[in-house]
Write a structure and sequence with these properties.
343 residues; T-fold; three-stranded antiparallel β-sheet; binds adenosine-5'-diphosphate; binds magnesium ion
């Protein structure tokens, strides 16, 4: 559904004394991996192999992810979202519960941010070549920009419970900013419903975790140092966080971009200008209980830039870390609420 987001996050073992009783020594960290939404997923559950097999946990996870794709992938021509995008009808249609949940949260964040997060921005994303069709890497003409912008705006989309409609026939919804996080939430909930209370779920860099590792230590996450190197060779750890029972999302524009005339063009669009963001903020990390919310907020703050983003995050009591590029290297800023998670 989404391009590779590729904020590498490494799981580290950190010595912290914790009180997870290892009364069942057969329980180990079991890794369940696969591909979904145009990226990979890595899940660790603390359980016995028999438990995971009896529960058919991997199969259930695959089924949940397939359902999310079937609802919200713009990369699948026969998904629910694609059907809505293709239809020119302005009549309300009944949509699935999952699709409605992600839309409701995305619209809430869109309104909260004064339109900085805008799930109708799809025509602009596609115009700049970051959509499912991956057009040539060129700067679009002013004319094309004007006509794409005419199709964008949250006021053109109406959600009433599970009834969804659009007021312009060619509105296009892109849930790339929240659907991956929603997939993480769905998998996390599935794991819990199956009686497993210690886990970490990661899809394309979006993650949510709970409880402890098999050693009794808390899960720790390394936030990667942003380096402009799409090959991914030069990766380095920037900061280690202990998020406890929360989700962690990082938005960064240093890996998915194209260059033209010596300028870098990000895949994140500022709906106010219709153009890719152009500022010195290179990554934003948000920690919050829901992965869907963290995912959407990290993109929102990325669109805003360091100054407005920091102000917004403080005002709304968000745990957020901003990494910016300066002449002398990277600088970071974090909100009061983020501090508690720093190792
Ligand atoms: P990041 O991890 O960098 O935040 P995401 O994959 O979460 O990236 O979201 C970026 C994607 O969201 C883009 O590829 C595009 O499809 C879409 N997008 C870009 N700009 C916006 C925006 N202002 N509001 C909502 N979605 C956007
Ligand atoms: Mg995001």
């Amino acid at each position: 559904m989404n391009k590779l987001k590729l904020m590498l996050v490494v799981l580290l073992t950190i010595s912290i004394t914790a009180c997870f009783p290892s009364n069942d020594s057969a329980k180990k960290e079991i890794l369940l991996q696969g591909r979904t939404m145009g990226t990979t997923y890595n899940i660790k559950v603390v359980a016995t192999i028999e438990q995971v097999e009896t529960l058919k946990l991997h199969e259930k996870i695959e089924a949940v992810l397939q359902q999310v794709n079937q609802q919200m992938s713009t990369y699948m021509p026969d998904s629910e979202i694609s059907a809505f995008n293709k239809s020119h009808s302005t009549e309300p249609v009944e949509i699935s519960v999952g699709f409605a949940r992600v839309l409701a949260e995305s619209i809430r964040l869109g309104e909260l941010s004064g339109g900085k997060l805008d799930i109708t921005v799809g025509p602009l994303v596609n115009l700049w070549g970051f959509g499912p069709k991956h057009r040539p890497e060129t700067v679009p003409s002013d004319e094309a920009l004007v006509s794409a912008r005419a199709r964008v705006g949250l006021h053109n989309l109406h959600l009433d419970g599970r009834q969804l409609s659009k007021s312009i026939p060619n509105l296009y919804i892109d849930l790339s900013t929240t659907a991956k996080g929603y997939g993480v939430d769905m998998v996390a909930e599935l794991i819990e419903v199956n009686g497993i209370g210690n886990y970490i779920v990661e899809i394309g860099g979006e993650m949510r975790l709970k409880g402890f590792k098999d050693t009794g230590e808390l899960w720790a996450i390394a936030i990667e140092k942003p380096i402009l190197d799409p090959s991914g060779v030069q990766r380095a750890i920037h900061e280690v966080v202990i998020p406890k029972d929360n989700a962690v999302a990082t938005s960064g524009d240093y890996r998915i971009y194209f260059e033209a005339d010596g300028q870098r063009f990000s895949h994140i669009i500022d709906p106010a200008t219709g153009k890719p963001i152009n500022h010195h903020l290179v990554s934003v990390t948000v920690i919050t209980p829901s992965s869907m919310t963290a995912d959407g907020l990290s993109t929102t703050l990325m669109v805003m830039g360091a100054e407005q983003g920091m102000e917004f995050a403080q005002q709304h009591g968000l745990a957020a870390l901003f990494i910016s590029k300066t002449e002398h290297g990277f600088t970071e800023q974090f909100t009061v609420k983020f501090k508690q998670y720093l190792k």
